[in-house]
Amino acid sequence: MTLPRRAAELFAAEHGHAPSAVWSAPGRVNLIGEHTDYNDGFVLPMAIPHRVAVAVGPREDRALVAATHGDDGELHRAEQVVVDDLRPGSPTGWSAFPAGVAWALGEAGHPVPGLDLVIVGDVPNGAGLSSSHALQCALALAMLDQQGRAPGEPGAPSLAEIARLVQRSENDYVGAPTGLLDQTASLRCVESHVLFFDVRSGDAEQVPFDPRSAGLELLVIDTRAQHSHSESGYGERRKGCERAAELLEVKALRDISQAQLPTALEKLPDELGPLVEHVVTENERVLSTVELLRSGDYAGIGPLLNASHTSLRDDYRVSCLELDVAVEAAVQAGALGARMVGGGFGGSAIALIPTADRERVESAVRDAFAQRSLTEPRVFIAIPSAGAGRDL
Ligand code: GAF
């Protein structure tokens, strides 16, 4: 059964009537452009087939009653909240997601009524594939739907505005200082394309992405590692970038070009230089990747993926043993390029591989993990899939 159908059936079982709508939103992988989004830079994500579906229906009272279908087959109910009483900081845990999205919508002039929400998803949690943003984007769309303000309806916010609202929920309610990459990917990606997104200007271009036409595939390796310092590490990197921009007297690191890099590095303390070097070179790598994709040169992006990983590992220092093992094993077994994706400190890596080498690369990665007694990774092919939308 499809996810939206399952969400609708669980909703009916829980509430005794059918939902009025089901919306879903996908997870993502970012082809390249990591830790550039909060520096006003460039990113190049695609949506993956894994999604979160939210069945929604109105309530008579002002409560937000959310439940999610867990891996154990049970429905887990969120802490019940009243939409008029939402304040950042409470509730915590996963209950903060529906509460935070409703709060951010209210703050932006889209007050959410009392709602029943039933959530079903298959984006692996904690895998760096943006399951929490898929959830929040699907929630935002379901909640707007109940106000008659779904995308395309009069008075509805644009997808770009919804992405900012979801970012506000995440930053100010849930308390994670993330950028705009994941929400934008989940809401604005389309099938068979990567999204070339300029965070500063908001410009977005759908760039065709069909590695199969070149006999290639994009493999996702979920290392299943999640290190405890991931949140603090992310926040520290972000603060470091902001401090460097201040010292360089620019609005954001986006304003430093590759040509200005040597002079910029001379002005910075040792601990900030490598962060700036990563962001400046990563932005360049996104632009080069887009050029190669426009000319259909898929194999040409392999070295850029490798350079991105090296930069994230050695300069930005957000990789970890599991990600490095995955990348190294994939490249040694024939991948044209590989790199970690997302915030880092665990999660997933991607590898661009010849279709014919898929089995060899997959077993090389599994063997490398087994040799080091690491948990067996989960591996799948990333098919550039549709962004968020209404299913039922
Ligand atoms: C996480 C964040 F949520 C994104 O905003 C982005 O910064 C990414 O890490 C790194 O590119 O996914």
From TrEMBL:
Residue stretches making up the GHMP kinase N-terminal domain: 100-187
Chain ranges of the GHMP kinase C-terminal domain: 290-370
GO biological process, one term: galactose metabolic process
Keyword field: ATP-binding, Carbohydrate metabolism, Galactose metabolism, Kinase, Magnesium, Metal-binding, Nucleotide-binding, Transferase
Pfam families listed in its UniProt record: GalKase_gal_bdg, GHMP_kinases_C, GHMP_kinases_N
NCBIfam families assigned to the protein according to its UniProt record, in alphabetical order: gal_kin
Protein name: Galactokinase
